[in-house]
Write a structure and sequence with these properties.
674 residues; binds 2'-deoxycytidine-5'-triphosphate; 6-stranded antiparallel beta sheet; 42% helix; alpha+beta; 6-stranded mixed beta sheet; binds magnesium ion; globular
Amino acid sequence: METSVGEAPSNDAVSETTTTTTKPRPWQSYHTVYTNAKAGMEGVDKEKVQRIVYEMSKGSKYFENEEKKEAYMKQKIETMRSQCEKLTDSQLATCQMIADKKISELEATRDLSKIWLHVDMDAFYASVETICDPSLKGKPMAVGGMSMISTANYEARRFGVRAAMPGFIARRLCPELIFVSVDFKKYTYYSELTRKVFQKYDPNYTATSLDEAYLDITKVCQERGLPGASIAEELRIAVFEEAGLTCSAGVAPNRLLAKVCSDINKPNGQFVLPNDRRAVMTFISSLPIRKIGGIGKVTEHILRDAIGIHTCEDMLQKGGHICALFSGSTAEFFLSVGLGLGRTDHPKAQLRKSISNERTFSATSDEVFLYQKLAELAELLCADMQKEGLHGRTLTLKLKNASFEVKTRALTLQKYICSKDEIYQYGSKLLKAELPNSLRLMGLRMSQFKEEFGGLSDPSQKTLKSFMHEDSSSKIMRDETCLGSENSDQVLEDEIKGVMSICKSGLVVLSEPHDPSESPSISEQSSHWGFIGMEDGSPSNEKVTGLEERSFLATIRPCENLACSLMEGIDQTARESTSNQPEQVLWIADYKCSLCGVELPSCFIEERQEHADFHLAEKLQKEETAGSSAELLATQRKIPRMDSPERRNSKSKKQKKSSDGGVYLPINMFFTKR
Ligand code: DCP
Ligand code: MG
């Protein structure tokens, strides 16, 4: 078992192959979730993985969407860069003062009195499968099938095989890969065994998924006069004795750091960060920002390429830029990351912030059908709201067009509503403005609930807070939209999208000034389908900030217009614990995919998006297969069974039988090509 104390991990361990030839290598800029390193992928030839993933998905809708996301990110970086250039010295100096003030305020909140332990099982599903079938030991194996794998053991990871990757790509990377079907009953059983152990160390432990938990071990350390390292070691041995599984642990003064630490010595290891400010600052000084829960690919790239922030410490060095360019809550989160701060209390149950539903259907511009869909959604939303006694006043319509472009349109009413007729009535107004359009998905979300659910009892009665927000139209817009992204991992969001106008009806209508056709991904990125509010924090439930701070910083920020025109938000997707249907996938109990049962905790932001994209691609394929001519069916789409006459006669060498009895789908059959 590996144990260590102290230093921060180095940047992603996956080796970057340097190029010596001048041949074009388009895959080098093709970064998907599949090409991200996970524990155990040290030494993987990243370029090879990128090339294979690129070649196997090129031309597919998935690929196109990835390209759009990439273009979106580049655009964000450019915008941010040009905003940086526009900052005058005096603006920067003022922002630096604001940052310094915020840093000292944050520093004053540092709590080093708690010892947190984050435990994460090693290759969980794969390890459970290996216990059940010891013949798998030492062989590269993945849990899942040809379409999607849930995890891979460490042997397979050496080939670049990882969770959320389609199985057919994994098999190309590792031809001898063994596939084992997912069996949640087993994982739940083993998870219960591990929890029995956690319970002994912290009866109030918080399990964030089947294989992960946070434990406050302060008391047990005190009572037994043992350091966190010993308790962690003991707990890991106890888990092994109880369940026969290894796990890794991180021990630190707060939850955010404990999570980072648990990944450092994976598998079967632990890392302890002492409860000492200097130790924390040293650890954080070289910690790549991507290691922090809540900072994903887009955020990482924007901070790195536009502002030059690579490590957590850089957040403090560039505090002036951060305060100039981001809203208060985001800036505060970044600065707190720079200080290595995180939550030290037990996460509390969160109030529902929104309720939503959505439906995917074959792309159509038939308005009768679309209004009928809207009526169904209104009825469903009304029923869901009634079950919980909710009355809301912000209604958001989400649309996805035939090319995967997502946009949201929201309106906020002066009164609270809950009836299906009212929802339909206002939903129709939003829909009407978007037609004609060919759509494949529609969703409705209600937020801003009555007081008992977190809203104001009388919307016409202003609190000081709402008054401050209403001081600036951009603030209203921001708080109403609180743009979160369901797309990939980005912390950042676009604040500029919304323009507010007061309609004759007295509605405050929020709309996006951009023509979504110009940059489709932008509307998708900016779509918020989570909840409104800032109660929650990063994926590891780190509290970020409240609205008070947001308005405080907004009012004193010298370049409000700049800040408003830039990015904001803290990985809303990750905080989307209350949304019913974040994508076309419904996450049961916020972690289990309703369509296939794959478990993805809310912190698997990229993976969730990829997973949702996968189902969409799958659905598209089915739709188009159904719509295709019989000839097309026979020649392109139909995947003959291994034992079918067509298959036996086929000369194709690409189709292989998977170990789980399924049929190997080559990429061009799996994804719908244009
Ligand atoms: N999981 C999944 N799909 C993903 C990621 C994870 O279904 N995209 C499931 C399978 C994993 C389990 O969740 O076994 C736990 O996820 P981890 O990220 O902790 O991955 P592992 O436990 O498999 O590996 P390790 O923690 O050793 O990196
Ligand atoms: Mg794990």
